[in-house]
Write the structure tokens for this entry.
Amino acid sequence: MGPLLMPAMAEEHSVLAKQMESMNDAFKALRRETDPVKGAAEARAAQQAALKAAAEVPELIEQMPDGPEKAKASLEYRKMMAKVFAVFCDVEEAFLSGNIAEVAKIVESIKEMKKTGHDKFIEKDK
């Protein structure tokens, strides 16, 4: 698991951690891939991981007391994962169109999404 992925998640072997690792692996591959068929396949793998991750609950949210704030945080997490899924669909579409320059642009935007999500949903002290 790379440094872009949350260290706290790396230590636990949760379903969420495995899906995040799958997305991270696909993300790394997408940054280097120029073959449209291979790139589209990597994007689909990332999409599947995002869908599975969206069904999970990050530890930070899990530890919150039950109530409206926890429900709101959980919803916010699922919405973010839905956006991640959609972005990986955009990557697949760009690969299938043979537009590698667009792939690079989209993949660059994923870095910021990762940072935002990790900052929001991962405990800082772990």
The chain is about 75% helix and 0% strand. Residues 1-12 have pLDDT under 50 and may be disordered. Residues 68-96 form the longest helix (29 residues). The radius of gyration is 15 Å.
